[in-house]
Design a protein that fits this description.
Elements lengths: L1 H4 L5 H13 L3 H11 L4 H14 L2 H14 L5 H12 L3 H14 L6 E7 L2 E9 L2 E5 L1
Antiparallel strand pairs: 1-2, 2-3
Length: 137
């Protein structure tokens, strides 16, 4: 990018490459790329953790969760992703331990939000707890 377009890639660009490699099942390459190209940043770690969840890579997922927690100890995203990875791997004891650790530490997950446009009007939806959705027009 620097040579061809005249500007250096940002963390967002690097995160896209990590995401593409991870989703393609090339998690080791994604991890190497993350280490070599991104500064200490939460989003690339969460991105690779998400790929680990998709592919059931518990060991690498645990490492990415530790990295994310070191960067943002009060952010619940890494713990929620790790809990989901444990669940998809059938490690229910670890799911319970992860969720209990969140509760004990006062760590909460950020609400999920999405929007949809219907007839020229944008409707937003926020999910704060599983099963409880609010409409935000």
């Amino acid at each position: 990018m620097q040579e061809r377009f005249g500007f250096p890639p940002t963390t967002t660009h690097h995160t896209c490459i990590i995401d593409a490699l991870g989703r393609a099942g090339r998690r080791e390459e994604a991890e190497e790329y993350l280490i070599a190209n991104t500064p200490q940043d939460l989003v690339p770690c969460l991105t690779l953790l998400g790929a680990c969840r998709i592919h059931g890579d518990v060991e690498r997922g645990e490492w990415m969760e530790q990295c994310a927690r070191a960067l943002a100890p009060r952010d619940g995203a890494a713990r929620v992703l790790m809990s989901n990875l444990y669940a998809s791997s059938g490690q229910w004891h670890s799911v319970l331990g992860t969720r209990a650790g969140m509760k004990e530490g006062g760590v909460t997950r950020r609400p999920g939000m999405t929007t949809i446009e219907i007839g020229g009007t944008v409707h937003g939806f926020v999910v704060t707890n599983i099963g409880k959705a609010e409409s935000k027009n």
